[in-house]
Structure formats: C-alpha cells, structure tokens
Amino acid sequence: MTEALSLDSSRWRVTSVASVLVFFVLVLLFHETTHGMVHIWYNFETYTHGFLILPITLWLIWQKRHHLAGFTPMPAPGVLVLTAGGLVVWSLARLTGVLVVEQFAFVSVLITAMVGIVGWQVSKFLAFPLLFLLFAVPMGEDLIPPLMEFTATFTVEALRLTGIPVYRDGLWFSLPSGNWSVVEACSGVRYLIASVTLGVMYAYITYHMLWKRLLFILMSAVVPIIANGIRAYMIVMIGHLSEMEYAVGVDHLIYGWVFFGIVMFLLFWIGSFWQETQEPPRYVAPPRSHQAHKLVPRTLTVTAIVLLAAAFAVFATDRAQHLETEVVDTLEAPVQAGTWRLTSAALPWSAAHLPTAHKFEAVYSNGHVEAQVHVVLFPHQYQGYEAINSQNQLTQNLRRSINEGRGSLAVGDTDIWVNRKKAIVWVDTQEQEYLVWQWYRVAGHNVANRYIGKAWEAVSRIYPGRDDGAWIAMAVPLTRDDRTDVERQMNDFATQMVPKINNAIDRALGIGE
User: CATH number of the domain at 336-508, please?
Assistant: First the structure.
C-alpha cells in the first residue's frame, strides 16, 4: 500500500505546478477584483474572516494529502464550460459595477479552473475545501433590509407580550420611556455571516453524516437570526427599565457581541451531543484509476485554455469599459408638464447622491399642490459612479422612511413600476412627511427593481451600446387628513412628468429627437 501511494503521489507534481500557476496568474489578471475583496476584508469587520478562508482551505486540503496520494488526477476539459460562464458573468458584473457578483464570479472561475485541472474524481473528494472558498466573497448586504424588518417585528411583538405599550412606524418605535429605531448595525447580519461561516466549518470537521451537517448548518443560520431578535428585545428592556441610562450607545454594541459569544457557545455545545465517535478511514480508495500517460498533455491543454480565456475576458472587458455615452446637451428641468409648471420656489431639501454634473432638482405646482422632482444622471456608469447604488438616497436630512411597496404608473401605452415610500424629513427645524416615488432609468428603461435594472444595464452595454443610468425621485408633502388626495396629485404629476424626464435625458445624450 505504501509503495502504491508513493508511486501515485509522484503524478501530482505536474498537477500541483499547474494549479499553483493558474491560481497566481488568475489573481494577477483579476487584480482589481482581488484588491476590492481585500479592501473590504480590511475595512469592514463584518468580512474580516475573508483573510482566513484561503489558509483554512489549504489546511483542509493538506489534511487530505494521504488520501489524495491514492488518486490519479486527470484534467476534465468539459468543466471549462463552467469557467467560460464564470468569465462572462464576471465581465458583465464588472461592466455594470455589481461588485458582489463580480467577486463571486471570480472565485467561481478559480474553483472551476481547479476542478478542470485536477478532474472530477479528485474534485468530488475535495468538494468542501473548494466550495469553502466562496465564503471569501463579501456578500450578505442585501440581507440587511429583511433582517432589520424581522428584528423590528420581533422586538415590538416581544415588548407587547411583556405588557409594554409600543407605537411602531416602520423601523422606528416608541415606548413610554423613549424612542428606538432599528438601524443597519442592529440587523444582525454580522452575527449571521460569522455564525454560518463557523457553522459550516464546524459541521464539516465534526460530522461525517450528511443530515447532521445540513441540520447544524441550518441551525447556524436560524439561531443567530432569532438570537438577534432576543438581543434587541433585551437591550430595549434594559434601556426601558433603566430610564434610558444603559444599553444605548457603546453599551448597545458591547451587549450585542457578548450575547453573540454566548449564543455561539450554546450552539456548539448543543452540536457536541451529535458528535460522531467513529474515526474516518485512514485511506480512501479512488473510485477508478486513470491512465497516467494522458495526464501531462491534458494538464497543459487545460492550463493554456484557462489562462488564454481569462486574459481575453480581462482585455475585452477593459476595452468595453472605455466605451462612453457622449453628453451633447445640458440636462435641464422641463418648464411645464401638463398642468404642472416649474416654479422658482426653493427646494425643501436636496437629494444625497454620488457626485455627478448632470442633474436637476426642481419644484412644480399645479396651483393646489407643490411637488418636487430629482433627476440624477450618470452618462457613463462604472463602480462608484452609477444610478443603482446605495449612496444615492433621498436626502441627508432624512429622519426615517417607511417602505410602502411597489406600485404601477400608467404612462401612455406602458406601465412603469415605482418604489413607494413615506419619508419623514427634517425641514426648517421641523419634521415633515412626504409621499415619495422613486425609480431608475437604465439605458432607456424605467425600472424599480435594482436587479432588473442591472440586468438591463448589462444587456444594453452589449446592444445597443448605451451605458447611461439615472436615479429619479418625486415627492409631495403628506398630511394626515388628505392622503387620498395626495396620492391622486402624485399620480397626476408623475404621469405628466415622466415623458418629459425621459425626453430630457435622451436629449442630453443626443438620443432620439
């Protein structure tokens, strides 16, 4: 047995060299993507664990070295179809500035390239270490809004069960002792990401049976979400019972991490009762043997294909990034839209958005109601200069906002969707409520959904070659006794204004009439 292992181990030399070469060349080719990942790991503690993912993966593979010596790696060229798909997704994500998809696609390219070099048989044996690399991608930001909503709902319902009266308005709620709000730091996304990462690692090392691994991973995802709700409830209770002296400010975060540590200890303690005492086999026989004389030519072929395809993807994407939409005219506010006329009234507040010279903000009146419109245009979009970006917000003076879902708006022969919100804005030392409709215009398409907008952006870059995007918002003052009338006025204003906005954007870009 020892002799056989030694002979087979010598066949790994070519595969090992090819794997290391492909890994480092891909990291260099996609250096901007890898730099972005490292930047996030370093600057955002939610994703600091990213520094540990590669060392852990290498350690897991090293632990299996004796088993791997019994395998004969044989490249699988068919896997390169998946690598090509990853390169296409990376290119589109790079062009549209979807950072998390770009990074996910890059790691997927790394994984599929490794699978192509070592082959299916070895990859199945190393499935977990290879897939564990996906945890290096800083993802989870889109989980923040639903987690915040769950935390607010859990906390308010728990307070009511306790017998404390609560008034809730979106993510903000008021108790007799003071006011509270659920912000991003309260969402628990940090706990969730850390718990799932540790849970997956613990399940793989501790258990051998699949159902135990899956059950513990599920627990590592569900428990921190519920625990974060309990944590938020406890903090509010501490603040309420102490007349807001404790559990606010720094205390809030300290109690949170201490509580999370306790929860993780309990989670692993519960998992220890399922621990398997049976030792794993010292040697795993490969399902079937391969002909070693095919190893070198196939490895060289697969390696060359991967590197050439990656280099072409980077080159083509870089060329496409330098294709810019030309601005031929100034983006100006329409003078009139139906019964609504442009006024000289000062804006109650300005939108907070990424820097761009192409925008207009104006107030319109129909003689009864004043409505304001904000149009922020990005003629040539790229990462950090784009319409669909979390930094494009209603205003810096926003106190809080309540999502009211999406609604359709009939404009001519088409319907467009808008994001409806009730916003409380600080205006002249007072809080003022507004009904707000917001959406995006991407390469001539009006969309409310960010993902659909990014898809249109990707498609439009290929054909017809437009890469412009605009962030658009409309707002009408909202009072408690005339909500129905305000809805009607907003609908009339938007119906009349949308075609004018579309024409103004296209005219500025030299498109259409």
Answer: 3.40.1000
